[in-house]
Each structure stands twice: as C-alpha cells, then as structure tokens.
Amino acid sequence: MAGAGWFCRVPGAVFETGAVVAGGPDRAPRVVVEEYPLPQQHEQVLRELTGGVRESADALRQGGGWTGAAGLEVALALDAAMARRGVRVRAVYPRALLAVPRYAAHLRQVSDAGVSVRVLDHVPHDLLVCDRQTACLTAEGAVEPGAGGPAPLVRIREPLLAASFVAIYESYWQRATPLSRTSAGPHHAQLGTREKAVIRLMTNGYSDDRIARRLGITTPDVQAVMTALMERLDAGSRFEAGYKLAREVDPRDL
Predict the structure, then answer these.
(1) Has domain 186-253 been given CATH number 3.40.220.10?
(2) How far apart are CA 133 and CA 121, in angstroms?
(3) Mind listing the pLDDT tens digit for each residue in 160-197?
(4) Which listed residue, of 31, 46, 89, 248, carries a Cα 20 to 30 Å from 129's Cα?
(5) How far is 112 from 250, CA to CA, in rounded Å?
(6) What are the tens digits of pLDDT across the range 221-239?
(7) String of DSSP letters for the chain
(8) What is the C-alpha to C-alpha distance for residues 24 and 60, in angstroms, rounded to an integer?
(9) pLDDT 10s digits, 53-108
(10) Are strands 56-60 and 88-94 parallel, antiparallel or unpaired?
(11) Contact at 8 Å (CB) between 218 and 209?
C-alpha cells in the first residue's frame, strides 16, 4: 500500500508499524513490536514490564515456554510483588496442572500471594497484558520445526492492539473455573458433616451457644470442632481459620 508504511524492520529485532502521519519520518509509529529470541532476555523483559504496572496484570500461563518449571517460580515472585503494590493480578492456568502435586501446590501459593487464579481445559499460549496497554506473548510460530529451544518473547506496545488482547483474555477468564471450585483441596476433603455445619453457621454470624442449640450438641462440642479445625489449618485464630477455609471451600459445598 503506497505511503502506508505498514512494516519497517529495525535492527535489534524490533518491528515498528503504523500509518504515516503528518510531521514527517521523525514522528513515532503508533505500534511497536519487540521480539526477544533469547531465553535470558525473557525474565529481564518481564521484570521490567511488571515493575511498572500500576493497575492490572492479566496472564495466561501454560506452564511451558517462559513459564516452564523455573519460570513458574519467577512468575510467582513477579505476581506477588505486583499484588503487594495493590495491582489487580489475574492468572489462568491449564487444569491439567492440578493433577501434578507440585504444580497444584504452586497454584495454591499463587492464590495465597493475592492473585485471582482460574483454571481452563486449554490455554493456547503464554500471554501477559499490563495496564491494558502492553501485551507480551510467546511467538510459537516463529520457531523453525525441529530447531528446539523456547519460542521468542514478543512485546507489543499499542493501546488498540492491547485492547484486543484484553478482550481475548476476558473470554478465557469468563470460561475458566476459579481455583476454589476445582477438586477439593486437602482441608476441604477432610471436612465432616458436623464440621461443615459448624462452619456454615459460624460464617452466618452464629455464636457458639446458638450453633450448639441449632445442631443439638453442646457448646464444648462446637468449641472442640473449631479447635480441631484451627489445628488442621495451622491457624492462630478463628479469623485466620475462616480466611483459609474461604479460599478453599465453595460455600455451595457446605
């Protein structure tokens, strides 16, 4: 297309695209796409990107590519740092990870760090959208068949394109299942009928005496149930026990 200037390759694996605008060639293009083919570049780019996030970070993570075995730990550290700053962090992982104990434990760690975690049957590729302005994803098709090695990391900086990635992400997020509603965790699996009843009434604000009357047991029985739950959850208070249970147990299961 004459005069459109859609693709201009710049040394250093940086691609700049966008329509030519008034003001001459010195005007910056509207779209910047940067490709980082080397594995050692990936963590550096992600640290730089997540370090500047102010409001939101939305991720799809396969558990491969830049979020392989070691990369998942890096992702956890970066996500936790953002959550501590008050950033809304969301992450979607493949449901299959829950079948591997160390990965299932990792997802619980991510959730405990303040990240909203969901799982999906199929996660197509790694993706990270920051502040709805910048997207990072793996360029799976850029690797020659049989070449081996991780796919390049691509960073796209342009609000309109980022908005498209946000829309794609939201479609996956809405179809994904919250971690708390997946197969029961170890604490949930061990809850008996009486424990579930006590928890349900406690979360509704009932006192120990009222719970005892409602269930036809004694107040010391109620207190014994709560003491056992606190010990099992390694909680120092009822509040902490309630917090931990809320993260693992779907209220509809009580």
Answers:
(1) no
(2) 27
(3) 888 999 999 999 999 998 887 775 444 455 577 888 88
(4) 248
(5) 16
(6) 999 888 888 877 777 888 8
(7) -TTT---EEETTTEEEE----TT-TTSPPSEEEEEE-SHHHHHHHHHHHHHT--SEEEEE--SSGGGSHHHHHHHHHHHHHHHHTT-EEEEEEEGGGGGSHHHHHHHHHHHHTT-EEEEES---S-EEEETTTEEEEE-GGGSPTT--SPPPEEEEE-HHHHHHHHHHHHHHHHHSEEGGGSS--HHHHT--HHHHHHHHHHHTT--HHHHHHHHTS-HHHHHHHHHHHHHHHT-SSHHHHHHHHHHH--GGG-
(8) 39
(9) 999 999 999 875 455 556 788 889 999 999 999 999 999 999 888 888 888 888 98
(10) parallel
(11) no
Return the residue matching tokens 């997207």: 135
Domain ranges of the chain: 37-181, 186-253
Angle at 168 between CA 246 and CA 68, to 5 degrees: 70
Residue 169 CB contacts under 8 Å (≥ 6 apart), including other chains: 58, 60, 92, 127, 129
Question: Within 13 Å of residue 211, how many CA atoms lie on the same side as its CB?
Answer: 23
**Could you tell me how far CA 103 lies from the centroid of its own chain?**
13
pLDDT given at position 216: 92
Angle (deg, nearest 10), helices 69-84 and 101-112: 10
